Amino acid sequence: MPKDAPHYAGHRQRLKARLTDNPRGLADYEVLELFLAMSLPRRDTKPIAKELIERFGSLKEAVMVRPDQLEGIKGLGPAVRTQWALFQELHARLGEADARRGRSVTDPAALARAAMARLGNKEIEEFWAVFMDTKNRIIAWEPMSKGTTNATAVFPREIAAAALRVEATNIILVHNHPGGGSNPSAEDIILTTKVAEACASLDIAVRDHIIVTDHDYYSFNEFGRL
User: Fold this and answer.
1) Whether the predicted pLDDT of 1 surpasses 60
2) How many Cβ atoms sit within 10 Å of the Cβ of residue 46?
């Protein structure tokens, strides 16, 4: 290694070797350290990684924070925020494997995992719908509305119209509860009933309503509410 190499260069090379040999042997901050080094190759990323985990509580919480929450942290500029956004989109798309077009929906837990990957860490409520054919194969998995930290405006007629547009005969409703539990609110229950009634008049069945957080879910179907 050159004499003028930065003090962290040797350490980083050793981390890369350990990653290749035994990735699970790396500490959480060391994984984050290498991740940061991809966009900060000329900085010592070890103290930054440790600060992020300490500030946000864990490796998971650190990498899933909104990119704008990284503003003001010394050493983290636009390149890092872009890397965060890209990683989170990659995470969501991999998690959405169970919501692919043409996939048959048979297990609420599988669809809930897809919803958790896409919506679980959102800071505002988002309402999505899974549109399916007569054999419960996914036609589309689409956002219906975005709201605030604890509410989102959803109109049953818009969901019914979207179902007609893609020629769906079955629907699963999905939304998130930012920072809260997955149990349905009174408003969630009323909304589910209204959507089900609006769709039933068009021979479209609402099969489930799944509410997710970043680690849990509630299925109306599993609890006998649909």
Assistant:
1) no
2) 19
Task: With H, G, I as helix, E, B as strand and everything else as coil, classify residue 111.
Answer: helix
- Whether 3 has a pLDDT exceeding 70, the answer reads no
Query: Which DSSP helix (H) or strand (E) runs through 175?
Result: strand 170-176
Q: Which residues pair with 205 in a beta bridge?
A: 170
Say which residues have a Cβ less than 8 Å from residue 60's Cβ, sequence separation at least 6. none
pTM score > 0.90 for this model? no
131, containing H or E segment: strand 126-132
Cα torsion at 83, 84, 90, 93 (round to 10°)?
A: -140
pLDDT digit string, tens, across residues 97-119: 888 888 888 888 989 999 999 99
Q: So what CATH class is 100-219? A: alpha beta
Q: Is the pLDDT of residue 138 over 70?
A: yes
Domain edges within the chain: 9-93, 100-219
Task: Give, for 171, the enclosing helix (H) or strand (E).
Answer: strand 170-176
**pLDDT at 87 > cutoff 90:** yes
Determine the Cα–Cα distance for residues 104 and 120; give it in Å rounded to an integer: 22
